[in-house]
Q: What sequence folds into this?
């Protein structure tokens, strides 16, 4: 396409209730995600429902769960962390 041209498209999509979008870099192999509970990292299993280049839409994250904003190098389950407000 060239500048000034337009495209009309029909997309097949569906609504995903109780889904959450995060950076794809936070999702670990095996569909797991680090959360923070009692100042420690904990792995939880999640269900990816959509992938894009940089984002992933997940289901299975309990309400009120605290997630990492960025990947932590050398992270492991049980690692002590401090939350910055």
A:
């Amino acid at each position: 396409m060239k500048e000034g041209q337009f495209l009309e498209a029909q997309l097949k999509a569906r609504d995903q209730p109780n889904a959450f979008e995060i950076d794809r870099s936070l999702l670990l192999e095996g569909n797991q995600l680090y959360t923070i509970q009692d100042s420690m990292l904990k792995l939880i299993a999640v269900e990816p429902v959509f992938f894009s280049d940089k984002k992933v839409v997940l289901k299975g994250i309990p309400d009120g769960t605290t997630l990492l904003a960025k990947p932590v190098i050398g992270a492991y389950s049980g690692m002590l962390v401090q939350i910055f407000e």
